[in-house]
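Hello again, I could really use a second opinion on something today. Take your time with it, there's no hurry, and the full record follows here:

___
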Amino acid sequence: MNSQEAKEILLSYRPGVDDAKNPSIVAALQQLEHDSELSRWFQQLQETDNAIRRQLRETPVPFGLKQRILAEQKVVRPDFGWRRLAVIAAAAAIIVLCVLSAWIFQRSTRNGLNAYRADMVRYVSSSYSSTFIKATSFDELRQVLAKRQWPTDFVIPDRLKSVTVIGGSAVEWNGHKVALACMKEGRHGLWLFVIEKSALPDAPKAETPQVKEVESAPTAAWSQDGKAYLFTVQGDEAFLRKYLPPTGS
């Protein structure tokens, strides 16, 4: 087993959870004893994973979440008998009008950039192991995405080419394909999403990143060659800006 093969196995190995007697895991762990660079990489990987898990555990529950959930519960009201036909007809017309207006408004907002930012931040904040693609380079990630018939013609900002690639995911959002690249730098996770610009009616018009905090996470969005890019990190805005294209302000 070489170092590259050991990396692919150790990327998904969880100490204390996975069976360490598995022959492939045993061989990969033994490889650490003979490869100091691989050993340092694995130690950094474990430290980053622990930091991410610790931060997720320490993330406070949004204020008023319980009340918002309860407010959205369907209320069943008792039927007190027949009403006049004219009143029912008028009420029904008003309800239909309100529902139609709300549907039109919701559709327009849920297809927009703000909704996309929020949904993607929630995606990487939750467990997405079932859709995770293991890869140790952007080229390897592109090969897997291509096999799944997912877009691969995206540009990696130069400042992200030096970070450690750990994989990605093939995501669907509102019927559109989103390519996700997952990276790590020290104790921080970094995520780059790419979607067709036409999927967002209010997509950024230029390559200059638009920085905005979403649910306590810094994000940056920009467009390039018909694609809309969204970048977020586990860290603050200063850390995010370190990896943005040089056109960022």
About this structure: The first helix runs from residue 3 to 10. The chain is about 40% helix and 20% strand. Residues 96-109 have pLDDT under 50 and may be disordered. The longest strand covers residues 164-173.
